[in-house]
Amino acid sequence: MRFCLNCYAVFILFFSSFYFVSGQGNSNHFEEGVHHINFTDTGLNQQVLADSLWLWQERVDLQIDRPVVRPEEVLFFKANILTGPNQYRVSASEVLRLELLDGDGKLLKKQVHRITEGSSSGSLELPKKMDAGIYYLRAYTRWMLNYGLNHLPTKKILVKDRKDDFFKETNEDLVVVPEGGFLVSGLQTKVIVSSGTLNLEAIPVVNQKGEIVANINTYGRGLGAFQLTPVWGDTYAVRIADDRLVPLPEVLEKGYNMQVNNLAPEKMIVQITGSGPSGKSSLYLLGKSGGATYVDKEVAFDDDLVARIEIPKSDIPEGIFHLQLRDGSGRAWSYRPVVVEKNELQIQAEKSFDSEGTEILKIRVTDRDNEPVETTLSLSLTGEVLTNRSGGRLPFDLPARILDRSTAFVNDLKILSGEQQISTGLLKRSAVPERIKYDFQKGVDFYGQAYNLYNELLRDTDIQILIEEGDNVYVREVRTDDDGRFQLSDLDISGEATLVFRTAGEETEAKLVKVIPFEFETPPLIIPEVYKGTLIPEETLNSSTEFMGNREENEQIIALNTVTLIATRELKKSNIPDYALQATRVISQERERPVPIDQLFLNIPGVQVVGLGTPYPYLSIPRAAGLGPLLWVLDGFIMNQSTTLVDIISLVPYTDVESIEILIGAEASIYGTRSAGGVISIKTRSGSDVDYLARKDAQAVLHGYHESPSFKEISGGERSRRKGRIALTTLFWDPVLKTDKNGEVIIPLPGAEEFDLIRMEARIFTQDGKQGNIESFFTKNN
Question: GO annotations under biological process (predicted)?
Answer without folding.
Answer: siderophore transmembrane transport
